[in-house]
User: Which sequence fits this backbone?
């Protein structure tokens, strides 16, 4: 029996001996002898107490965008399964695009959409942001109640981003790997990621 508090637990079942199987003929309804040379083992199944999913989408104009000191680039929307609460911990974005400055540092803020207050901010070199990514980690995991959503705005200062004449300069945020977004089941310390099939997540805007 599964404990109500268990999460991220792997289960599998097996049939050890042929005598564990009772089979009958479809037409005759007579007992059938079953033979097998090895233990039959089903694929392992991982059971979570809840699940967090994520989407990212451009916020505001996605093209011919003006560069500003307070540029809300995208909405990161986190949705928690009805089964139980989840706590959001961190997200890593890989940056790309012609709008990025050639050198120096770049800062991203994760702004709480409900309060308008920055939940966390990180500054890294442009080289790091475009090669290994920029990670935004909340000081304390944020609890999202089961069945509800939480939205964060991804904010940058784009006023000094590259501006090539007579061309559109793009800027992309990408959650590349499932483990790039970290969360945990409510009240449990073990870090979990997104489903592998749900990534990558990408948001792209372009500047005038």
Assistant:
């Amino acid at each position: 029996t599964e404990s109500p508090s268990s999460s991220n637990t792997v289960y599998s079942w097996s049939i050890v001996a042929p005598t564990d199987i009772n089979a009958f003929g479809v037409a005759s309804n007579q007992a059938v002898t079953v033979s097998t040379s090895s233990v039959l083992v089903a694929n392992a199944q991982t059971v979570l107490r809840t699940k967090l999913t994520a989407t990212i989408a451009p916020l505001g104009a996605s093209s011919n965008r003006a560069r500003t000191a307070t540029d809300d680039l995208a909405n990161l929307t986190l949705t928690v399964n009805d089964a139980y609460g989840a706590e959001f911990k961190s997200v890593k974005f890989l940056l790309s695009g012609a709008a990025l400055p050639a050198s120096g540092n770049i800062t991203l803020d994760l702004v709480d959409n409900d309060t308008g207050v920055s939940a966390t901010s990180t500054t890294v070199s442009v080289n790091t942001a475009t090669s290994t990514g920029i990670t935004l980690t909340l000081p304390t995991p944020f609890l999202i109640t089961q069945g509800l959503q939480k939205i964060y705005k991804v904010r940058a200062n784009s006023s000094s981003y590259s501006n090539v004449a007579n061309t559109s300069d793009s800027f992309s945020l990408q959650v590349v790997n499932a483990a790039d977004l970290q969360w945990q089941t409510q009240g449990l310390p073990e870090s979990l990621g997104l489903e592998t099939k749900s990534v990558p997540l990408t948001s792209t805007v372009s500047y005038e």
The helical segments are 126-131. Residues 126-131 form the longest helix (6 residues).
